[in-house]
C-alpha cells in the first residue's frame, strides 16, 4: 500500500485529496451509535446499552439492497478501507479488497464495517466503563459468542435500514460470523462469503489460543484483568501472545522464503562470543511489541475465547448438514493451500455440508505460500474469484431491480 | 510405563528389587566426573573445568567396543532408563527403548547416557557456581553449540576407555549431536542413529523457540537471568515456553484424537455464564506448570539457542554432501509421518545427502499420529526397525571379535 501511495503521490483524483490512490475509497470517517438495551447475550448476561463504531463505503441504493457487511477477525476493527486523513500512512486492513473497481466494488455496493462488541477500537468492550461500577469493565466484561456479534450487527443493519444484506463477508473469525448470520437470520442475507475459516477450532487451535491467554494472564501486570484501574499493562504477555498468533498466521514455507536463516546480527564464526540473531526473531519481536502498544489484552482474551467456543453445528445435533439446511443464502468459500491454522480441509468440510444441505456453494482452494494471512494479501487468483463472485452478486441485484421496475 | 509397573508389581526378578518390570535395567545410580580444563568452547570462551553427570546400563565388553552413547534432546538428561529407587514411579525418559531385550539391548550393549554441559540436572550449567564470581552463572553461562556437547562427550568416552562407540544415538536435538559426532570424530563411531531430526531448523522452528525465550526473558522474575541470586524464578514464563514447545511436539491430529473439543468444566448451554474449559487447556497448563517447577529457565534458553544455531553443513560450504563425505559411520534415520516440528522431509534431506556422499544409510518413515513426540513413545514398527538395526550392530561386533580371535 505504501508503494502505491508513493508512486501516485503526485496525482490528484476528483473527490479525493492529493496523494491517495485512484482506487481508494478515499478519506473515511468512523461513525458511532449507541443502541438502547436490554441486549441479552448468549452467556445469559444483559447489557443495558452498547455502542458500535462503524464505517461505510459507497452509496446505499434506493431499495437498500446493496449492503455488504464486513465481519472482522481476531484483531480487526471498523477501519477496513480508505484513510482517516490525507497524511495517513496506511489504509484500512482490507483496503486491497474494498474500493472502486476492487472485488468488493464500492461503485456497486454500500459496504459496512464495524468494530465488534467487546472490541477495543471504540465499540463497547473491556476498556469501556461498566455503568454499575463506574470503572472499566476489564476482565468482568461478559464473555461473547459469535452469535452475540451477529445479533448486534443485525441491530446495526436495522439502524441503517438494511433489511437484507447483499452479502455478509468475513475471513477467519469473520467467516464464522458470516456462517452464523446464515443460520440466525437466514432471510437477511443473499450471499455468505466465508474465507479461510472453519466450522469449529481443532484442539491444536485451542491449544495455541490457550497458550496466548496464559502468556497474558500470567504477566504480573495483568492484575486479574484490572490493569486499567491499576494503571499497569501486561505488555510483555500480550507481545508473546501476538508472537504465538503470528507464527500460526504464516506458513512454514512462507516464513522460510521471507527470512530463511538470514542473520540480523552476530556471526557464526568460531571465536566470536556475540549472540547470533536471526531476522525472523527481530521481526517477531517487532510484531509483538507494536501490537501490545495498540491492542487491549482483555479484548484479545475475549476474542480468542469466542473463537474457541464457536461450533457451528453444536445446537443442530452436531450435524453441519442439519445446521446448513436452515440457510437461505448462497455461499462462496475460499481457502489457501498453505494455511495450517484453518487448513483447506476445514473449508472442504463446510463445502461438503453445504452441498449435502442443497445450499448453492462455490468453493475455491487458492494456491498461496502465505499461510492464513493470505486472506488479507494480494493474490491474483483470489482477487479474480472474489471479484467474479461479487460481480454476480451485483448483477443479481440489478436484475431484481429491473424485474421490480417491469412488474 | 506405570501400567507395566502395576501389572508386574508382584513379580520378583533375580537381581532386581520387587516391583520393577522384568525388562528394566533395574535400579541405576547416576555417576559424576569433573573434567579438568581448559575446555575451549565454540564461542571462544574457556571453561576451567566442568562436571558431567551420567548413567550407564549393561556391561562394557573386554575390547570396549560395545558402547552406545545416548544424546538427549531439549529437556532430557542422563536418566534415560531404569529407576532410581524401588519406589520410583517413573523410569528414565527412554526406558521403552533401552533395556534387556529392548531395541538398545543392554544384554549386548554398554549404554552411556549423560546430562549435557549447560544442563540443569547435575552437569555444569547456568545453575552451577561461576568460579570467577562465586555466584551462579545464570545468563552469563557461555552459549553452547552441539559441537561443544560432542567434544565433552568425547572426553567422557576417553574416561570410560571407549575409543570407538558401537553407535551414537539421538532423537531431535540428540540426533543433531549424533550427526555432529560423525563429522567431528568420524573414526570414533561405527553407527550413527538419527531420529526425528534435521540438518538445521526452519525459520518457523526458530520463531517458536524465540517466542518461548521471549516468554521467559520478559517475565519480571527473570531478572536478566539472575533469578537464582535474587531468589526469584520466572515460573510463568517458563510454563508458557513449555506450552508452546508442547504444542509443537504433538500433531494436530494427535491432539484432536486425545482431546478433541471435550470439555473439562463449564457448559455451552445458553444462559450459563461460567467460562468453558476444554480438556486440552488444562492438560497444557499442567504440562507447563509441572515443567516450570523442575527445569532451569536459563538452560531452556541455552538449549533452544543451540538448536537454532545448529547447521550441519555451514562450515562445509553449505553443502550437506561435502559435510557427510567426512563421515565414516553407517546411518539409521527414522522420521514420523505426523511430525511437523522435524517433518519427514527434513530426514529425507539427510538421507539424500548421505546417499550422494556414498555413506550407507537406512531410512524409515514411520506411520504415527503422535507428532514429534513419537520418537519417545511405543510404536511397533519403530521398535522393530530400531531393534533390527541395533541387532545388526551387535552382530557386527561379535563378527569383528571372532575375526580378531581368528587372526
TrEMBL record, chains A, B:
Residues bound to substrate: 242, 373
Catalytic activity line of the entry: L-homoserine + succinyl-CoA = O-succinyl-L-homoserine + CoA
GO MF annotation terms: homoserine O-acetyltransferase activity; homoserine O-succinyltransferase activity
Active site: 172 (nucleophile), 339, 372
Keywords assigned by UniProt, alphabetized: Acyltransferase, Amino-acid biosynthesis, Cytoplasm, Methionine biosynthesis, Transferase
Top class in the EC scheme: transferase
UniProt subcellular location: Cytoplasm
One Gene Ontology cellular component: cytoplasm
Span of domain AB hydrolase-1: 68-376
Gene3D superfamilies linked: 1.10.1740.110, alpha/beta hydrolase (3.40.50.1820)
Described purpose of this protein according to its UniProt entry: Transfers a succinyl group from succinyl-CoA to L-homoserine, forming succinyl-L-homoserine.
UniProt cross-references to NCBIfam families, sorted A to Z: homoserO_Ac_trn (TIGR01392), PRK00175.1 (NF001209)
Family per record: Belongs to the AB hydrolase superfamily. MetX family.
Protein name in the entry: Homoserine O-succinyltransferase
Amino acid at each position: 500500500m505504501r508503494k502505491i501511495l508513493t508512486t501516485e503521490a503526485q496525482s490528484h483524483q476528483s473527490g479525493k485529496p492529493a496523494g491517495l490512490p485512484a482506487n481508494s475509497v478515499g478519506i473515511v470517517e468512523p461513525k458511532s451509535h449507541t443502541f438502547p438495551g436490554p441486549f441479552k447475550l448468549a452467556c445469559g448476561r444483559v447489557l443495558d446499552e452498547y455502542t458500535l463504531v462503524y464505517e461505510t463505503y459507497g452509496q446505499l441504493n434506493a431499495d437498500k439492497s446493496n449492503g455488504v457487511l464486513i465481519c472482522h477477525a481476531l484483531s480487526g476493527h471498523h477501519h477496513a478501507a480508505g484513510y482517516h486523513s490525507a497524511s495517513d500512512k496506511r489504509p484500512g486492513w482490507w483496503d486491497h479488497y474494498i474500493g472502486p473497481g476492487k472485488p468488493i466494488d464500492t461503485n456497486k455496493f454500500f459496504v459496512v464495517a464495524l468494530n465488534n462488541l467487546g472490541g477495543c477500537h471504540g465499540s463497547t468492550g473491556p476498556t469501556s466503563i461498566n455503568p454499575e461500577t463506574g470503572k472499566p469493565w476489564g476482565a468482568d466484561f461478559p464473555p461473547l459468542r459469535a452469535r452475540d456479534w451477529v445479533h448486534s450487527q443485525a441491530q446495526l443493519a436495522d439502524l441503517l435500514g438494511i433489511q437484507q444484506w447483499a452479502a455478509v463477508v468475513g475471513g477467519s473469525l469473520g467467516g464464522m460470523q458470516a456462517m452464523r448470520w446464515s443460520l440466525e437470520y437466514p432471510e437477511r442475507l443473499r450471499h455468505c462469503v466465508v474465507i479461510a475459516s472453519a466450522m469449529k477450532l481443532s484442539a491444536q487451535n485451542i491449544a495455541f489460543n490457550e497458550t496466548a491467554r496464559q502468556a497474558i494472564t500470567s504477566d504480573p501486570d495483568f492484575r486479574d484483568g484490572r490493569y486499567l484501574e491499576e494503571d499497569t499493562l501486561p505488555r510483555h504477555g500480550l507481545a508473546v501472545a501476538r508472537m504465538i498468533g503470528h507464527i500460526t498466521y504464516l506458513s512454514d514455507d512462507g516464513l522460510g522464503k521471507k527470512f530463511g536463516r538470514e542473520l540480523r546480527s552476530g556471526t557464526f564464526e568460531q571465536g566470536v562470543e556475540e549472540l547470533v540473531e536471526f531476522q525472523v526473531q527481530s521481526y517477531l519481536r517487532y510484531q509483538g511489541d507494536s501490537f501490545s502498544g495498540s491492542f487491549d489484552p482483555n479484548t484479545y482474551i475475549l476474542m480468542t475465547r469466542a473463537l474457541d467456543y464457536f461450533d457451528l453445528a453444536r445446537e443442530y445435533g452436531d450435524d453441519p448438514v442439519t445446521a446448513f439446511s436452515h440457510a437461505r443464502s448462497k455461499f462462496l468459500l475460499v481457502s489457501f493451500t498453505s494455511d495450517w491454522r484453518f487448513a483447506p480441509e476445514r473449508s472442504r468440510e463446510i463445502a461438503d455440508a453445504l452441498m449435502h444441505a442443497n445450499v448453492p456453494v462455490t468453493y475455491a482452494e487458492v494456491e498461496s505460500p502465505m499461510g492464513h494471512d493470505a486472506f488479507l494479501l494480494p493474490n491474483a487468483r483470489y482477487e479474480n474469484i472474489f471479484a467474479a463472485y461479487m460481480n454476480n452478486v451485483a448483477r443479481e441485484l440489478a436484475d431484481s431491480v429491473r424485474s421490480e421496475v417491469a412488474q
